[in-house]
Amino acid sequence: MKIIKVSLKKRSYKIIIGRHILGRLGSFLKALDIGLDAYVITNPSVKAKYGRALKRTLERAGFGVRFKTVADSEESKSIPTVASV
Question: What is the pTM for the complete model shown?
Answer without folding.
Answer: 0.79
